[in-house]
Amino acid sequence: MNFVAIDVETANSDIGSICQIGMAKYARGKLVDTYCSLINPQATFDSMNINVHGIDSEMVENAPSISDVHGDILQFVGDNILLNYTNFDKRAMTKCLADHHIPMPSFQWVDASVMVRDMCQKFAHKGYGLANVCKEWGYKFNHHDALEDAKACGFIVTTILRENSLSVTDWTDNGKYHKRNTTRFPTNRAIAGNATGRFYGLNICFTGELSIMRSDISDIAANHGFHVKAGVSKKLDYLVVGTPDLRLLNGHDKSSKQRKSEEIVANGGTIQIIEEHEFLKLIGLSN
């Protein structure tokens, strides 16, 4: 049960605009150390993000940059496995470090939300947002504070491991639960939306690696009324973006679906390009 749980908050829709980082270190299932710092993202703050976490430009004016705290992060994590809740934090760190020309350390990452879905039937397909799981399990915390979220992630992980006599390494690349969680880049399939769903009539498409299996998240979207599309067109309303498949980028930093969507938007289209956590919040599966 040795690991470090990590959480970040961002200043705007750029996933690399980290403005706070929190980490909680666990040894033998016990919280033994914490790290938290505001980060100057050297970017503007969106009001939507400020409303979520309460951090604004004045608060980070004299805060260190990611370059300044990079060494502290490496020292704190050491050789521990990194746990994040959904792959948002991993993607944010990767993008943030790349933007500052800092190599991404060879950390081992595990998505704690996958652990929840694997081990808790109640949360297999819905309701597995960090706040909802903690509420169900009686853990109170200040959501969207990076350190508080990291400790909440740690609580969930230690609970699952203790009650199932498992190790966090069971979800690493060579772990017994890894194989069934690796098919996240399937071919998109078109699904008609549920006519009684709240979002009936809107078109949606998914691209990249998500914390939820593509087939599952497509079914979730369709159940909420979305028409799930296999590709991008001017008729698309939402594109949900995950981590792109490096094998298919051909030298680009974004998937072909995201590039095409951005081109449509640049030419007057109205596609909303959002992250997975924004989609889950939209349909009420996350806070």
Tell me about the biggest sheet?
Answer: 5 strands, mixed
CA-CA gap between termini? 28 Å
- Poorly predicted runs are none
Helical region count? Answer: 9
N-to-C series of helices and strands: EEEHHEHEHHHEHEEHEH
Kindly provide the radius of gyration, computed on alpha-carbon positions and rounded to a whole number of angstroms: 19 Å
* Count of β-strands: 9
Task: Classify the secondary structure makeup into a structural class.
Answer: alpha/beta
Shape: globular
Q: Biggest sheet, strands in spatial order? A: 3-2-1-4-5
Helical content band: 25-40%
Mean pLDDT comes to 89
Strand composition percent: 15-25%
Description:
The structure is a single chain. This protein is α/β, with parallel strands linked by helices and 287 residues long. 32% of the residues lie in helices and 17% in strands. The protein contains 9 helices and 9 strands. It has helices spanning 47-53, 66-77, 88-99, 112-119, 130-136, 146-164, 214-223, 256-266, 276-282, and strands at residues 3-10, 18-27, 30-38, 81-84, 109-111, 203-207, 227-228, 238-241, 272-275. The strands form 2 sheets. Strands 3-2-1-4-5 form a 5-stranded mixed beta sheet. The chain has a 4-stranded parallel beta sheet with strand order 7-6-8-9, with helices on both faces. α4 (112-119) runs parallel beside α6. It is globular and about 50 Å long. The relative contact order is 0.12. The mean pLDDT is 89.
